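Internal ticket #5521
Category: modeling
Description: The requester needs a full-assembly model to guide mutagenesis choices. All entity lines are attached below as received. Residue total reported by intake: 222.
Assigned to: D.W.
Attached entities:
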Amino acid sequence: MGVTKTNLFSETQNELALAAKAFDHPARVAIIHYLLKSNACINGDLVQELGLAQPTISQHLRELKAIGIIQGTIEGSRISYCINPVRWAEIRNQFNQLFDQYPAPLSGDCC
Amino acid sequence: MGVTKTNLFSETQNELALAAKAFDHPARVAIIHYLLKSNACINGDLVQELGLAQPTISQHLRELKAIGIIQGTIEGSRISYCINPVRWAEIRNQFNQLFDQYPAPLSGDCC
DNA sequence: ATTATTTATTGCAATATTACGATATGCAGA
DNA sequence: TCTGCATATCGTAATATTGCAATAAATAAT
């Protein structure tokens, strides 16, 4: 039904799924790439950089902000976005904890 | 329009977005968790483990298989699924390459 | 051969996501 | 104040995703 049965899954599972949403759309990956490259913080000349309309970018930024991976500070009439270091580390750890579970210590192969 | 403008983004960005889809739904995370835990390969007693209907599980398995992060081998009337080690490492690297870009070497803080 | 078991596929309903035009909001400068 | 910029929000259309009942397909067991 397009509706996720959140209650069936663990906190960890739901949280990782949420975090993964920061990367599950190329536009959001592109925004993060751009933020990483332009070390300093930037605003919506992402509209120039990516070929998407301004409301679309704004929507992706809002999602990323909701996930917490970026933060924005008002700077006059502009808004400066950048990576949120704390949340970045948190998400990185969540992924690493998953990735580190395989290969398992004495993983006899399977199929 | 619910349609992603793939052509606007780089190969890297599209590939990471694809890989992230393995983790962007808690059911898929749960499946992966279960595969990691039950070191050996298993089949669809995921239906028992998670509380989802059999066709729903089957669909998630198909997506994970399409991404390549799991593989299945026919074993009589059952199908044994397990992690695909090569693809796992590949995806892990894709994420690490992103994560390693921050904090940047001399990252003067921003906002 | 018939029946049970396991998994995949089909068809469909409900909801979510992506994208954008139009519009609102908020600040800066003339 | 008025005008122009930057960004957010609203409304809406197109498409995607999630979930399941019903059914098919393929093997196993009787």
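Resolution: model delivered.
Comment from assignee: Residues 1-5, 43-44, 54-55, 57-59, 61-62, 76-79 of chain B lie near DNA strand C (CB under 10 Å from a C1').
Ticket closed.
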